[in-house]
Design brief:
By secondary structure, the protein is α+β, with helices and mostly antiparallel strands. The protein has a single domain, classed as GAF domain (Beta-Lactamase, 2-Layer Sandwich). Strand 2 and strand 3 form a beta hairpin. The radius of gyration is 14 Å and the shape is globular.
Length: 156
């Protein structure tokens, strides 16, 4: 794949269907997870203009900030804390339409209003999470979940 995305589509579904094969092609030949996470963050931010897109990697009993696109972020998150820590603990995708209504939400930025966190599972174990924040309420839905879970599988 070239270093340029070809973004086409009017709907969220069309954008994901156009983007996913390009991302899969991009990560397919690269064995370095950090490099792949960096490029995936850039591709998602570029395509959807989300407020914040990035990864947290499991390091012992914490999630540690990995590659991201967007403003300054929290560096470490404990298991079960906030949306990211909960997605890690439960090993399931979390869609939060209003982060202020999520018990224990960690506010890395007061501008973040909604969030989706998708665990990356390898050999039955969560190794990282993909975290995406929006400055608008209720940005994320089942369409995002479907395609971002496919993306997480490709990264695992």
């Amino acid at each position: 794949m070239s270093e340029n995305l070809i973004i086409k589509g009017d709907s969220k579904k069309e954008l994901y269907e156009n983007l996913l094969p390009q991302i899969k092609s991009l990560v397919e030949g690269e064995t370095d997870l950090i490099a792949n996470m960096a490029n995936v963050s850039a591709c998602l931010k570029d395509t959807f203009n989300f407020w914040w897109v990035g990864f947290y990697r499991v390091e012992g009993e914490e999630l540690v900030l990995g590659p991201f696109q967007g403003p300054l972020a929290c560096t470490r998150i404990r298991k079960g804390k906030g949306v990211c820590g909960t997605a890690w603990q439960e090993a399931k995708t979390m869609i939060v339409p209003d982060v202020d209504a999520f018990p224990g939400h960690i506010a890395c930025s007061s501008l973040s209003r909604s969030e989706i966190v998708v665990p990356i599972v390898k050999d039955g174990k969560v190794t990282a999470v993909l975290d995406i924040d929006s400055e608008k309420l209720a940005t994320f839905d089942q369409t995002d979940q479907k395609y971002l879970e496919q993306l997480a599988e490709a990264l695992a």
